[in-house]
Amino acid sequence: TKVFWLIYLVYLMIASGGMIVTAQLGPIARDFGVEKQMITLLGFSMPLVAMAVSIDNLANGLTRPFSGFLSDRIGRENTMLLMFCADGIAFLGMAAFGRHPVAFLVFAALIFLFWGEVFSLFPAICGDTFGVKHATANNGLLYTAKGTSALLVPLANLLVAATGTWTAVLLVVAVSCLGAGALAKLVLDPMRRRMLAPAAIAAEVI
Q1: Quick one: DSSP state of residue 166?
Q2: How far is CA 115 from the centre of its chain?
């Protein structure tokens, strides 16, 4: 249905940024001149990229139960709007301030914090929309959006080659994140409501 493919598009738009940063965090740090910086946090000194990867993995894990908890209370699309727009702002922050080692560390962590929720929100909205009868097949197909988004990594490399910097990529991804949030709330939300309205009315009658 149109609703499924719209969910797929939103997934693709938000997943692409996370996949690009996951694959290219080191080159981005090198481009920004912070790759060889040492960072001390809580008494531990590590190379910037190594510490960023450690913190990013933690943020990526923590956001999954948090975003699931949040979406159960304020709704799937509302959570998407909040998290995706926050991710877009984090990408803008990285583009603007990432040449400072501490800012690079902070905004990289925020990018992963606001990206990891895809593994909670999209299975949930898929199950809410299409039910449990074919939940595994539906979610399996939806999950291919993550793999599709990985195909955009080479395109990011082409943009870097054309512009000479990762800043342009970060700006494009930021726009994609903000667009995904707006699309989820302004288009997907009313489409899902219309789709599910007959079932809700039938349930009230019963």
Answers
A1: S
A2: 3
* pLDDT tens column, 144-183: 998 899 888 899 999 999 999 999 999 999 999 999 999 9
Distance CA 84, CA 121 (A): 11
Please compute, for residue 37, the number of CA atoms within 13 A of its CA located in the half-sphere on the CB side.
23
pTM score? 0.90
d(Cα 90, Cα 108) in Å, to the nearest integer?
Answer: 8
d(CA 180, CA 195): 20
End-to-end Cα separation, the chain, in angstroms: 27
**pLDDT 10s digits, 14-64:** 999 999 999 999 999 999 999 888 887 777 788 889 999 988 889 988 999
- Rounded to whole angstroms, how far apart are CA atoms 46 and 162? 33
